[in-house]
Design brief:
Strand order of the largest sheet: 15-14-13-18-17-16
CATH architecture of the largest domain: 2-Layer Sandwich
Structural class: alpha+beta
CATH class of the largest domain: Alpha Beta
Number of helices: 21
Shape: elongated
Distance between the termini: 194 Å
Helix content: 40-55%
Family: Belongs to the ethylene receptor family.
GO molecular function: diguanylate cyclase activity
Main location: endoplasmic reticulum
Domain PAC: 214-266, 336-388
Number of domains: 6
Domain PAS: 140-210, 263-333
Length: 735
């Protein structure tokens, strides 16, 4: 009943298959153990002692292998392989025992199930608390963000370098920037330059731990460019290690408050510096406040009147009535205005113009009164004086009207005198202009001669006979001698001027010197047969007339002198070359229209250079000066003598024939030799002239052509021996 089967001998076959089947089933069961352990270990990575699971898995795999080998041994006898795996299994188990023994203290420390339940319960509580804390933190953050974003004041998170990290809508409205624009800027860029240093100092103290927060008033620059005043509150946020993270800032717009403060300061300044006295009282009349002007007006200092009744400023008999009158008016019309007689601290009285108005609280109820007092004492005194002077002013008005009329006439006289072209023309109009200013007088304008030895009447006015001589010495007039107006009457005690004829004098006389630029030009003489005509006002008017006449005459003389200087040669006294050219063109144009001739004589002093070399240039100037005077005597009034240049002189002879021109040139040539010229008491000898003659239109149709022809003839006269007259050669046909 037993047979060999593999390595087994003497075994029953049915029982051998049973053993193999059971070993395979055990191997399959062992195989499930490592699979479950590996799956559990992978799912629970947090379990402790992961190496135990790996050890169990390894031993289970070895056990599976042993049972499979035993099953295999039914067919193949591999004892060495089975012994090897059993040895490995024994060694593994031994190592596992050693490791388990060493790990036993750690394993014993693992909490038991009760402790795990308690720990789990505690963990659940902590998780709930953490959840509650996280929810509270979320709500806190949400509340912060809601408060941050919707705050009525500006709020911002600012970096340590001043950059904006987060801003709310209110801050954007304050500075005028959008959120994106503001985040691209820094605090420093919108801060007023004058506030930067103070802000930086506070930030430094905040970063160094000297202060925990700071508050300051500063200015931002609005996007539109204007200044925005803000109240800035800043605190520093740090991490858990105390390192600064960023700043939390609160910005409140206080521009309106600043404006109100400035207005209050201005009002306080006005209150203290206004010229009117301002008094503030309560409803019972006790003084609450008053300004410096009130102190000056009433004589009491503020400390002396605070809390006292306003009646101390008025007379006792008037105080009660006046106070009641003011109160009644304030109740009905909310305003009282009028004049009040007041008494100063020193007892003196005055008058002030006062306005009282009530002051109301926020509920619209009157709490005090304010009175503005203007001191009109001086004005009242002035009104009294003005009333007293009113009658006198009425009479002055008439005099003023007369004076205005005289000023108008005086202005008219000045305008006409300024329009005069010559002194002679001014003499003619002066009499007509003075007569309306002094209708009841006669007189004249007297001018001092160029020699300063005589003064002569150049014009007179008036119906009565002039009481003064018309020609006399300036020494005979007290006005000219004293340099001021001299008034005289027929009174025996009056000092009369010597030029007044006593048999013709009656009434009163006035002599007014005419001064211009510190020099006496003459004198105005006025005579009235009746006294009382030459009043003080008339004497002032006469001085003004004399001043204007003197100024006008001086200007005319200066104009004539300047005109002569502009057209005259200063050495010879003859006309200069510019005047020559203008005159020649004018005379040629006139001759062309009237078909007349114009003669030109150009002359030159012979040997003038050697004359200068021998006697000197001053002697040469004397020769030219004497020659100029000689020629002025030789020519007609219509002729024009000009210095052409150097020692060359030209004569223009209008409407002159060729023969007459030649005859006059010859006479000049011969007569000039008789001049007796001396220099430093030494005779210089006689001079001779070379002359060239040219005629218009025979020798030229233009002034330049005629001059060139005369100059050519003069050149020929010099070349042919000098001291002669040469006629120019004809160039054009005569019409």
């Amino acid at each position: 009943m037993y047979q060999e089967c593999g390595h087994y001998y003497l075994c029953q076959l049915k029982l051998a298959w049973l053993d193999a089947t059971s070993n395979s089933a055990i191997a399959f069961a062992y195989n499930l153990i490592p699979i479950i352990v590996v799956y559990s270990a992978r799912k629970r990575q947090d379990l402790p002692f992961q190496w135990i699971y790996r050890l169990i898995t390894t031993l289970a795999v070895i056990g599976i292998t042993i049972y499979l080998i035993e099953a295999w041994m039914f067919w193949r006898s591999q004892y060495w392989l089975l012994g090897l795996f059993k040895a490995i299994t024994a060694f593994g188990l031994l190592c596992a025992m050693i490791l388990l023994v060493r790990s036993l203290p750690k394993v014993l420390t693992i909490p038991n199930l009760t402790e795990l339940k308690q720990a789990n319960h505690q963990l659940e509580l902590e998780i709930k608390e953490r959840h509650f804390a996280e929810e509270a933190l979320r709500e806190s953050k949400e509340r912060f963000h809601n408060a941050f974003d919707h705050a009525a004041i500006g709020m911002a998170l600012v970096g340590l370098n001043g950059s904006w990290l987060q801003v709310n809508h209110s801050l954007c409205e304050i500075v005028g920037y959008s959120e994106a624009e503001l985040l691209s800027k820094t605090c420093q860029e919108i801060t007023h330059p004058d506030d930067l240093d103070t802000d930086f100092e506070y930030v430094r103290q905040l970063l160094t731990g000297e202060i925990r927060c700071y508050h300051m008033e500063k200015r931002y620059i609005h996007k539109l460019g204007h200044v925005v005043w803000i109240m800035l509150s800043v605190s520093l946020v740090c991490d858990i290690h105390g390192q600064p993270l960023y700043f939390i800032t609160q910005i409140q717009d206080i521009t309106e408050r600043k404006r109100v403060e400035q207005t209050l300061q201005q009002q306080a300044y006005i209150f203290e510096n206004i010229s009117d006295g301002v008094i503030v009282t309560d409803l019972s009349g006790r003084v609450i406040d008053w300004n410096r002007a009130a102190e000056k007006m009433f004589g009491y200092s503020k400390a002396e009147v605070l809390g006292k009744n306003l009646g101390i400023l008025h007379k006792p008999e008037e105080s009660a009535v006046l106070t009641q009158k003011i109160i009644d008016e304030l109740h009905t019309a909310n305003r009282w205005a009028g004049e009040i007689n007041f008494v100063r601290k020193d007892g003196t009285e005055g008058v002030c113009e006062t306005v009282f108005v009530p002051l109301y609280n926020e509920h619209g109820q009157p709490t005090a009164t304010i009175g503005v007092n203007r001191n009109i004492t001086e004005r009242k005194q002035a009104e009294a004086a003005l009333q007293q002077a009113n009658e006198q002013l009425t009479s002055w008005v008439q005099q003023l009207e007369q004076r205005n009329h005289e000023i108008a006439l005086l202005s008219q006289m000045s305008d006409i005198l300024q329009a005069c072209l010559t002194v002679e023309e001014a003499y003619k109009v002066i009499a007509q202009l003075i007569q309306p200013l002094f209708p009841e007088t006669s007189g004249g304008v007297f001018i001092i001669s160029s020699s300063k030895h005589l003064i002569e009447a150049v014009t007179t006015w008036g119906d009565s006979t002039l009481a003064s001589k018309k020609v006399f010495s300036p020494k005979n007039c007290w006005a000219l001698r004293r340099g001021r107006s001299h008034f005289s009457t027929t009174d025996d005690h009056s000092l009369h001027c010597s030029h007044i004829e006593e048999d013709l004098f009656g009434g009163e006389a006035l002599c007014v010197p005419m001064m211009a630029q510190g020099e006496a030009l003459g004198m105005l003489h006025f005579h009235s047969p009746q006294t009382g005509q030459l009043t003080a006002a008339k004497q002032q008017l006469a001085s003004a007339v004399a001043e204007r006449i003197a100024l006008a005459l001086a200007n005319l003389r200066l104009t004539e002198a300047l005109q002569q200087q502009s057209i005259r040669d200063p050495l010879t006294g003859l006309f200069n070359r510019r005047y020559l050219e203008e005159s020649l063109e004018r005379e040629i144009s006139r001759a062309e229209r009237s078909h007349k001739r114009v003669g030109i004589i150009m002359m030159d002093v012979d040997h003038f250079k050697s004359f200068n070399d021998r006697f000197g240039h001053e002697a040469g100037d004397i020769v030219l000066r004497e020659l100029g005077g000689f020629l002025r005597k030789q020519i007609r009034k219509a002729d024009i003598a000009c210095r052409y240049g150097g020692e060359e002189i030209m004569l223009i002879l209008p409407e002159t024939s060729l023969d007459v021109c030649q005859e006059r040139a010859e006479r000049i040539r011969q007569t000039v030799k008789h001049l007796d010229i001396q220099y430093q008491r030494q005779k210089l000898g006689c001079i001779s002239l070379s002359l060239g003659i040219a005629m218009y239109p025979e020798h030229g149709l233009t002034g330049t052509a005629v001059i060139e022809a005369a100059d050519a003839a003069l050149y020929i006269a010099k070349k042919t021996g000098r001291d002669r007259v040469v006629m120019a050669q004809s160039q054009v046909s005569v019409y």
